[in-house]
Design brief:
Layout: H1 2-17, E1 29-33, H2 35-40, E2 44-47, E3 51-55, E4 60-64, E5 74-76, E6 79-84, E7 88-96, E8 107-113
Parallel strand pairs: 1-3, 2-8
Antiparallel strand pairs: 3-6, 4-7, 5-6, 7-8
């Protein structure tokens, strides 16, 4: 009888948690990139849909995508981060601190999310 009561309590709890995306956490992957790696890749990344890209190198000064043309980039403890949920090609920009090219120079980059084109 105790197991039945516990089961009846857990089912509504699961229904409450699911709409908040807790169950989707495991399907998201992460790709961390550094300044030297991004230069070596000719400023282009290829990823799967629903991937979080982290520009996780303190030498990235800024990372952004034009408004309405890509995901919102946020600064986190690990660096700059954005989630790419929809397949397509996203054209963004980044700058680096002195020592990795010309300081203040704006570099173009592309993030290609595999799937049908956009």
């Amino acid at each position: 009888m105790r197991r039945l009561k516990l089961g009846l309590l857990l089912v509504p709890l699961g229904l409450l948690i699911a709409p908040f995306g807790v169950s989707d956490v495991s399907t998201q992957s992460r790709r961390t990139v550094t300044v030297p790696e991004l230069f070596r890749l000719n400023h282009q990344l290829e990823i799967d849909p629903d991937t979080e890209v982290v520009w996780g190198d303190p030498h990235f000064e800024r990372v952004w995508f034009p408004s309405g043309a890509g995901p919102k980039v946020e600064r986190t403890r690990e660096g700059f981060a954005a989630i790419f949920g929809t397949p397509g090609t996203y054209r963004g920009r980044f700058t680096v601190v002195a020592g990795h090219g010309t300081a203040g120079e704006v570099y173009a980059m592309r993030v290609v999310v595999k799937g049908t084109g956009r």
